[in-house]
Every structure is written in structure tokens, then in C-alpha cells.
Amino acid sequence: MKRHILFPLALALAASTIMFGTSACSSKTSTASEEDGPAIAMTVHVKDGEFDPRDVDIEAGGTVMWINDDVASHDLQFLVPNKLYSGVIKPGRAWIHTFTSAGTYDYYCDFHNTMKGSVVVRPAP
């Protein structure tokens, strides 16, 4: 009898955490997939202390998703042209960002400052 009550409660709690837990955060860190938000122009995998690919090229308005496939937490620190910070991206999580302005966005992992990459954003046609 207890099993019949506890399972639906656990299922409801898990569902509400998924539905409301990530939407209440001010950070864009999420386990987003391409179906959950804007179309992903590029995906960067974070694994073995590297960004793969390290450098990406997209059009303005394009969205990049970083997926942490590593065992360690990482973050992305952008300094130029605008300061931008991803927050901590834990293993198995992702962060997405849409780049609206053309320019070169160099970034690095604040925890592992030898991890570096860039996003080159070309003007939209």
C-alpha cells in the first residue's frame, strides 16, 4: 500500500522539479536540447579539459550550446566585447547563449584557465 502512494508522490516531485526547477533560475544554464529553445547553430562539447570545437563561427542571431561532458564543473568567462559569464556548468549540464552582435567573443574556463575558445559572429545577411 505504501508503495502505491510513494511512487506517484516521487514521480510528481521529479516532474515538478524538471518543469519548475530550471525555469526559476536566472542563469541560462540548463539541460536544454534543440527542441527546448532557439535553434542551435553550433554545439561545443566540454570534455577532457578541452572545448571541442575550440573555435566556432556563426551568423549574428545564432545560438551556441556548450555541453559539459566532463567529470569536472566548468564555466565560460567572456571579457570582450561584453563581459558575459555562464555560471557554473556542472557535469551533464549545458549552457546556451544567442549572440546578437557581430564580433569575436574570446572565452576561457575560469576554473581551468588553459581552456580557451572563441565564437566569431558574422553579420547576418
UniProtKB/TrEMBL annotation:
One of its GO terms (cellular component) is periplasmic space. InterPro entries: Amicyanin/Pseudoazurin, Cupredoxin, EfeO_Cupredoxin, ET_Amicyanin. GO terms for molecular function: copper ion binding; electron transfer activity. It is found in: Periplasm. This is Unannotated protein. It comes from freshwater metagenome. Keywords: Electron transport, Periplasm, Transport. PANTHER family: BLL1555 PROTEIN. Residues 24-121 form the EfeO-type cupredoxin-like domain. Its main location: periplasm.
